Amino acid sequence: MVILREQQKHTKGINEKLWNDDFWNLPKDLEFEIGIAVDIGTTTVAMTILSLPEKKVIGQISKTNEQTKLGADVMMRIMHTLSGKGDILHEMVITQIEQMAQEGLQNKIDFEIFDSKKVHLAVVGNTTMCHLFLDKSVAGLAGFPFQAAYTGNFSCTGYEIGMKFLKNATVSVLSGIAAHVGSDALAVIGTENLIQKKKVQLAVDLGTNAEIILNQRGSLRVCSTAAGPAFEGKGIQCGIPAKPGAVSGVKISSGNGNIILEYIGGELPKGICGSGLVDAMAEMRKCGVLLADGYLLTEEEAKKQGVHQEICGQLIKRNGQNAFLLYQDERDGREIYLQQSDIRNTQLAKGAIQAGINALLQSGGIRLSDVEEIIVSGVLGSCMRFGNAVKIGLLPDVSRQKVFFVGNAAGRGAARVITDKFFSKEMELLAQQIEHVELAELPEFQKLLLQAMDLKSWL
Fold first, then answer.
1. Which of 140, 144, 151, 408 is the most buried (most CB within 10 A)?
2. Which domains does the chain have, with CATH numbers?
């Protein structure tokens, strides 16, 4: 039996604790009235809108990056740019940001007298996303030796990069760290204070291009790993972003075969988002239909293993693959299921993150047990169950007290570019002191990646 549980509020509203007085360090002579902070992710664009005179967040919007229409990952977009589609990709992101800004400001300003000169737009993202936003050449990001087209903080007007609605706005792009470790990672470091002299901290910014940060009592090193977009709802047959109708939590009872689906209210279930994907795979492992190597059993194989008959009945074939049926709408027959290729894509994503963490720790000469705090940032990290993330090996099996889920820290870092007059310069100087570890150059990385593919906990 499938039991549905509607979640009225999947994600919390604006957390005022994150925007307390310490966050606001504006100059006395306030030049701007509106701040627009944007985190351009490979898969998702997240925006926060600020009223600067009120020192208040007045809106938050998140949408799928329009550029995904021309490639799910960074390298695909670089290839499209080099083949002559750079202008299209640039126009996509500029147009989307302006449309999101207009949507967020609706009913908050008078558009007839609106002057974008009073707007400060701050942007963070991985290096490729920032280059495409600024219409900079990505040729140096395509192959070794990787090299960005610009370094440090970048400032311009909206007009200079082709904006219309925000043409008079001041645009600030926070400094990146390396060719494939961008300003989003630097924003996480600054916002989460990942340079404490007395601690060993590890941070993982979960996204299509996952950044991993290690602080060894004030000494910082970073790396990035191509996790892919599985946890953001892309590359999964029934995957969707965390929006109304998304299955965000899954529980499967080995005793009676019941499947409990938690879904984001507003619409009936129509797909599964990242947190639901983590839950589903962990629960499938628990009830014995998903093996550690990622193989999904057939109905006949599950029966031979003594799996409850109700659960066996959910094992189906779809698109010529083994699949697990989570939900079927009796009205129109719409289905939500995980198929074998979905599981493989998730294995690749979690394996890349696990291997990246282990490689970074090895490069620093420390063990996981030496780490005192683990910071998990990104939208997925704000809503997934820690225990299930551990069961499939997405996060290490450590004490829960060591792990802190902080939501979109990169987006808050973009906001601090606006709200803290010293933040940008401090981060630009810090970026020059951070050691970048290029995983592709580590001979042991491929071995670590192969070891990280199993869906099981790791220490």
1. 408
2. 28-176 (3.30.420.480), 186-229+344-413+420-451 (3.30.420.40)
